[in-house]
Design goal:
- By secondary structure, the protein is mainly alpha-helical.
- It has helices at about 10-35, 35-55, 60-80, 85-110, 115-120, 130-150, 150-160, 160-165, 170-190, 195-200, 205-210, 215-240, 245-264.
- Helices cover about 80% and strands about 0% of the residues.
- α11 (about 205-210) packs across α12 (about 215-240).
C-alpha cells in the first residue's frame, strides 16, 4: 500500500477527496437545513446541458457547465422568490431542461465525446495539479465566507421569514450560497459524476443528523464521515479494481445504516 503514495495520480486523488469532502460537508449541511436536497440534483443535471453546449460549441465544457450551474441555481432562487413558483417545481424545471439540452447538444456534436463517461460516472484518477488548486481555492473561499457570516447563514437556512423580519440580508446570503453550491457541484462532477453526486451532499449529513442537532455539529460530523468514506473507498478501489466513485456512495450508505442501528 505504501507504494501507492509514490504515484502522483494517487496522491492527487487522495488530496482531492479530502478537500472536496470538507467543502461538501458545509454546503451539504446548508442544503439539508434548508430542505433543498433536490436542488443539488437539479443543478447537477442542469450541468449536463452546459457540458453538452461546451462540446457542441468547441469550448471548455467545465467552464460552460459552471456558467449553466450558477445560472440554474440563481434561476431557482429567482423563480421561488420573485416569480412565486414553488421551489420543488422550479428545481424540476431546471432539472429536466438541463438534461434535455445536454442530450440534444451531445447528439448534435460531431464525432465521439470521449470524456462523457467521466462526467456521468466520475473518475478520481484524472485529477490534476490544476484541479487541486481550483478545489483548494474554492474550499478556502467557502470556509472564509462561512466563518465570517456563520450566524447569518444559519439563521437564513433555518428560518428565512424570521431572518427577513430582523432585517438580515436573506436574498444576498441565499444567492451567494447558491453560487457556492453550483461551483462546488461543477468542481466535483469529474470526481463523483453526475449520476452519484447527490449522495455526496446528502448521505454524510443524514448520518450526522442521527447524532447531532446543531448546524456546526452536523457539518463537522458529516465532514468526518465524508473524509473517512472517500479515503476508504479510494484505498479499497485499488485492491478490488472497481470505480471509486461508486464505492464512496456504497460506503456512505453503509455508514448511514450502521449509524441508524447505533442511534437506536
Amino acid at each position: 500500500m505504501t507504494n501507492l503514495f509514490h504515484y502522483d495520480f494517487f496522491c492527487n486523488a487522495l488530496a482531492a477527496v479530502v478537500i472536496i469532502a470538507i467543502a461538501s460537508a458545509v454546503i451539504g449541511t446548508y442544503i439539508m437545513t434548508r430542505r433543498l436536497v433536490a436542488i443539488s440534483g437539479g443543478i447537477t443535471h442542469a450541468c449536463f446541458g452546459g457540458l453538452g453546449l461546451g462540446y457542441f460549441l468547441g469550448l471548455n465544457p467545465i467552464a460552460m457547465a459552471a456558467a449553466v450551474a450558477v445560472a440554474s441555481g440563481l434561476g431557482v432562487e429567482w423563480m421561488s422568490g420573485r416569480a412565486r413558483v414553488r421551489e420543488d417545481s422550479a428545481i424540476a424545471v431546471i432539472w429536466s431542461l438541463g438534461m434535455a439540452a445536454g442530450v440534444i447538444f451531445v447528439f448534435l456534436t460531431p464525432g465521439y465525446v470521449p470524456e462523457l463517461n467521466t462526467f456521468l460516472f466520475g473518475n478520481l484518477l484524472t485529477v490534476s495539479h490544476a484541479d487541486l488548486i481550483a478545489f483548494a481555492v474554492y474550499t478556502v473561499a467557502l470556509l472564509a465566507f462561512y466563518f465570517r457570516k456563520r450566524r447569518v447563514i444559519i439563521a437564513c437556512a433555518f428560518d428565512r421569514d424570521f431572518a427577513r423580519v430582523i432585517h438580515l440580508p436573506v436574498g444576498f446570503i441565499n444567492c451567494l450560497m447558491t453560487v457556492f453550491i453550483a461551483v462546488g457541484i461543477v468542481l466535483t462532477i469529474r470526481l463523483i459524476g453526475i449520476m452519484l453526486l447527490m449522495s455526496m451532499l446528502t448521505l454524510p449529513q443524514m448520518t450526522a443528523e442521527l447524532f447531532a442537532r446543531r448546524f456546526d455539529g452536523i457539518a463537522m460530523l458529516s465532514c468526518a464521515v465524508s473524509v473517512a468514506c472517500s479515503v476508504g473507498a479510494l484505498l479499497l478501489a485499488t485492491f478490488i479494481d472497481v470505480p471509486c466513485s461508486a464505492l464512496i456512495v456504497l460506503l456512505q450508505a453503509a455508514v448511514y445504516f450502521i449509524g441508524r442501528l447505533i442511534a437506536r
